[in-house]
Every structure is written in C-alpha cells, then in structure tokens.
Design goal:
With 99 residues, this protein is mostly helical. The protein has one domain. 61% of the residues lie in helices and 10% in strands. A two-stranded antiparallel sheet has the order 1-4. Strand 2 and strand 3 form a beta hairpin. The chain is globular and about 35 Å long.
C-alpha cells in the first residue's frame, strides 16, 4: 500500500513541475542544453535524454545539466549498452558525437 501511495505522490509532484513550465519553455531549455553540450564536448544528447534528466531535476539550469552530461559522456567507464554513453541522475545518456 505504501509503495502505491509513494508512486502516486511522485507522479503528482512530477505533474506539478510540468504544469509550471509552458511547452515553449521546456523546448527552449532542452535546446539550450543541447547547444551547450555540443559546444563544450562535441556531443548532442537526444531530446528524450535531456527531457528525462530535466524531469528528474526540474530546477536545474541548462548549464548544470550540460555540465553533468559532458562529465558523463567523457567518462570512459560507460554502460555495457552501446546506445548509452553515460548516466546522469539515473538516465541513460543517448546521442551522437559531432565534429
């Protein structure tokens, strides 16, 4: 019973954080993270990756998320999953390298 209540509480808290942001704000923040990561470490994370990280840390700035992603993809001890370039806040970082 407690597990069901905590899952509902987590879902409700997540929904409230999404209500606080408009779709345009979310899209802009995701684009800002992708731009910063691309400029700093030549890697473009997928939209889904950035969205999942932001969902787990709604108050995080684009710079903080970009820094965490760069640190994760720069770490050589990555996941056994070829798609996963690293992990940030429990989220598998997926994306592509750019020159």
């Amino acid at each position: 019973m407690f597990k069901k209540i905590s899952i509902v509480a987590i879902a409700a808290a997540f929904a409230l954080t999404l209500v606080a942001c408009t779709p345009t704000q979310v899209t802009s923040k995701i684009a800002a993270v992708q731009e910063k990561v691309g400029a700093v470490c030549n890697f473009i994370p997928t939209v889904g990756t950035v969205a999942a990280i932001l969902a787990g840390a709604p108050g995080a700035t684009a710079v903080a998320v970009a820094t965490a992603i760069c640190a994760a993809v720069s770490n050589k001890s990555v996941s056994r999953d070829a798609q996963c370039k690293g992990v940030v806040k429990g989220v598998c970082v997926q994306g592509r390298w750019v020159r």
